[in-house]
Amino acid sequence: MAYILISVPAAQGDTIVTVGCGNSYYNYPKHDGTSSMEFSTTCTYPGSSTWTFSGLGTMRHSAIGSPCNYTETFCTCGADYILCTCRNRDNGCADVSGWVKTIVACDVAISASPSTILPQMNGNQPPTSRISVVLNKAAPAGGCAVKLRTAPVAGSGGHSHYGSRPKGSLTPDTFSFPAGAAGTQYADYTSGAFSGTEKILAEVNDKAVNGTTVNVQVPGLIALTANDQGYWSLTGQTSTHPNNHYGTPATLARAGMMAYDYYKKTGATLGINDMSLEWGGLFDWKATWASPHSLHRKGTSVDIDTCAKVAASGSTAICLNNNGVTVNGSIKVNKIFIEKICNFYNGKIAPEASIHCEFP
Fold first, then answer.
1. Nearest 5°: phi and psi at 340?
2. In the prediction, which pLDDT does 83 show?
3. What is the maximum alpha-carbon separation in the chain?
4. Which long-range contacts (CB under 8 A, 24 or more apart) does 62-69 make?
5. Domain boundaries, the chain
6. Residues contacting 106, CB < 8 A, separation 6+
């Protein structure tokens, strides 16, 4: 006995399409209160809006009898098609394919090249990434309208704080593919001053599709670790910037030698304060997305506490730091001596109230 698919209008767009399974004998919907065959399947395709398929199973009821007592309608969403099938549910009867709808959708892919770029630095040309907007198949009758926007990933780039985080820009950010067109259009993503991961979000005909990401970072930075010999200690960590001691390999080596020289001369342990964040970029140590640190962006900056801890146990030395806080067991750091050591290792002391050695 052949089962056939009935009632399948070919309308498109946010439409409920009623489908059902039947046979050449007497049919009626199965409503026995315990195993109703109602179903609903929704398939969404950019450029082809939304299709919702609903229907009822049917029970065969005939004096002749049949090994297939009832069927149900079953629809699945494919990549570019929708298949509705009459499924026999008992006695080993085979499923019978019913109806296939081919979807002409906006098949859009977004990519970035390169996917990792530098943050903006003081006075340098802003780095860019080329964003490709590819329509893989010819656009449907209504065409394909693509919109892009950027969204920074929270917590990325070493910033464990929130608020209105500055982000990169896209030029242009809208694209139009007319009916029958395919191919590639381009945008330029320009990074901002802050490092981190930025999502490139995409909408096609006002429906979200897969986008891509761009990582904004200074490559090759590594973390300075604590020194078990007492030459330096790590300071300045906060809940909003917990990892503040990243630098280039050369900067880490120079900072270590500078602290060693100071320890051998004075017997005091330098406090190594802010350097760079793990991906570099603007370091807003006040967590306001503003720029209190003009440097500290590329792994070559080293801040040194104004008080150095004395190694001798039981020391009564007292130091008043730049914030007016008394630090017991510490001595005031000799800035002139620090400048000589900084210069010896090819660094320069920055013109600011704190002690900041900037290396090449």
1. -65, -45
2. 63
3. 108
4. 62/25, 62/26, 64/25, 66/1, 66/25, 67/91, 67/93, 68/1, 68/3, 68/93
5. 3-102, 108-216, 222-358
6. 46, 47, 135, 139, 140, 144, 146, 177, 204, 205
Taking the C-alpha atoms of residue 158 and residue 139, their distance in angstroms, rounded to an integer, is 42
* Tokens at 114, concatenated: 């390169």
Nearest to 92 by CA among 69, 112, 73, 108: 69
The span from the CA of 138 to the CA of 108, in Å, is 10
User: In whole angstroms, what separates CA 256 from the centre of its chain?
Assistant: 35
DSSP 3-state assignment of 268?
strand
* Domain 108-216 listed as CATH 3.40.50.1820: no
Per DSSP, the three-state class of 250 is helix
* Predicted TM-score of the model (pTM): 0.76
Class of domain 222-358: alpha beta
Examine the pLDDT at 228 and tell me if it is beyond 80.
Answer: yes
For residues 143 and 60, which has the higher predicted lDDT (pLDDT)? 143
Of 263, 231, 229, 225, whose CA–CA distance to 245 is shortest?
225
- Is the pLDDT reported for residue 18 higher than 80? no
Q: Are 275 and 180 in contact (CB under 8 A)?
A: no
Distance (Å, whole) CA 255 – CA 296 = 14
Measure Cα distances from 13 to 16, 32, 78, 302, 357 in Å: 9, 33, 17, 61, 64
Q: Give the model's pLDDT for residue 82.
A: 63
The dihedral sign for the CA sequence 335, 340, 342, 348? positive
Say if strands 232-234 and 39-45 run parallel, antiparallel, or are unpaired.
unpaired
> Sign of dihedral through CA atoms 341, 345, 351, 354?
negative
Chain length of the chain: 360
Name the pairing type of β-strands 348-349 and 355-358: antiparallel
